[in-house]
Design goal:
Layout (H helix, E strand, L loop, with lengths): L1 H28 L2 H24 L6 H6 L7 H42 L11 H24 L1 H12 L3 H32 L2 H24 L5 H6 L6 H20 L1 H22 L11 H19 L1
Helix pairs in contact: 1-2, 1-10, 1-11, 2-8, 2-10, 4-5, 4-6, 4-7, 4-8, 4-11, 5-11, 5-12, 7-8, 7-10, 8-10, 10-11, 11-12
């Protein structure tokens, strides 16, 4: 179990690095949707090569496709919904809620999936120790993510202005949607994990999910921006601007590997631990041309509390 928990933490760390890379790319191509499309294309190509080298094939057989339920192919669609929604949420409810509400949704849905064994996941009963561990984990996330943001005057002012300019009902709608896309992200990971088990190839399942998501994200980018990136913009990109898709694809691949082994809930929580740890390091050292921000005590305390929660969950 410890091996798969470690894989999930590393995957979360890689995903944390994807965000500033894609953010810088979006500045170059002048669109977060075009940047996402480029990232998805790169990730799909990477997974196609990985699948071909590891399993000798890329696409599932026609007989396999015909005998599987329709929901098994939803992973890529759900992933593209999650990505697009994150872009839309930020200007509607601000930075803090855009981060924390989907996280809460992921933890809740991941726990429910494990309890009832949905989407082919291994059924893992809830115990009091596990429940306390999850609560402690959520408290740790809140301290590590929300508290530093609240103390940041610029973030606090931006979020306040963002929410105050809208009708409360509209804000509530976006807040509910933020939690729902957390459900969506957890469901996507569970479905992809089961697809990997059915195919007997995590790399092939990851490719299928990523390829479907790529088609949808490209269509969204064309619908929103009504253009393609020009040659000059692509020439202005740096070599590391193209790494985002590879990091994202590795995260998906890791999830497909770990969920059948340790469950959706623990996979998600270990991934979140890696993401928060990675984000702290990125801010501390200004990786990928991101703004430097010194580590604060709340982040360290939050990480320690999260680790305590993980220990309790593992003991359960």
């Amino acid at each position: 179990m410890l091996v798969f928990m470690t894989i999930s933490v590393i995957a979360g760390f890689l995903l944390a690095n994807q965000s500033p890379i894609n953010s810088n790319l979006s500045t170059v191509v002048k669109s977060p949707f075009i940047a996402a499309a480029i990232s998805f294309i790169v990730g799909t190509i990477f997974l196609a090569i990985t699948s071909l080298s590891m399993s000798g094939r890329i696409f599932p057989s026609l007989s396999f496709i015909q005998t599987q339920p329709a929901w098994i192919w939803l992973g890529g669609i759900l992933g593209s919904i999650y990505l697009t929604s994150n872009v839309l949420l930020f200007p509607q409810i601000g930075a803090i809620q855009t981060v924390i509400l989907p996280v809460l949704g992921q933890i809740v849905m991941g726990t429910i999936i494990d309890m009832f064994g949905w989407f082919g996941a291994k059924q893992l009963p809830m115990t009091w120790i596990k429940f306390i561990g999850i609560i402690i984990m959520v408290v740790g996330i809140f301290i590590a993510v929300v508290v530093p943001s609240i103390k940041n005057r610029d973030v606090r002012q931006f979020d306040s202005e963002t929410v105050s300019g809208q009708h409360p009902t509209v804000v509530l709608g976006w807040q509910i949607w933020a939690v729902v896309i957390g459900f969506v992200a957890a469901t996507q990971q569970a479905i992809n994990g089961h697809l990997g088990t059915l195919l007997g190839s995590p790399s092939q399942a990851s490719f299928v999910s990523f390829a479907v998501g790529t088609v949808i994200v490209i269509l969204v980018a064309l619908a929103v921006d009504k253009r393609l990136p020009n040659i000059q913009q692509l020439k202005e990109t740096k070599a590391w601007n193209w790494l985002g898709g590879i990091l994202g694809s590795l995260f998906v691949l890791a999830s497909v590997i770990t969920i059948p082994k340790i469950g959706a809930g623990l996979t998600i929580m270990m991934g979140l631990l890696g993401q928060i740890f990675g984000s702290i390091l990125i801010q501390q050292f200004g990786w990928w041309k991101s703004m430097k921000s010194r580590v604060v005590l709340a982040q360290i305390v939050g990480m320690i509390i999260m680790l305590i929660g993980v220990v309790l969950i593992k003991l359960a």
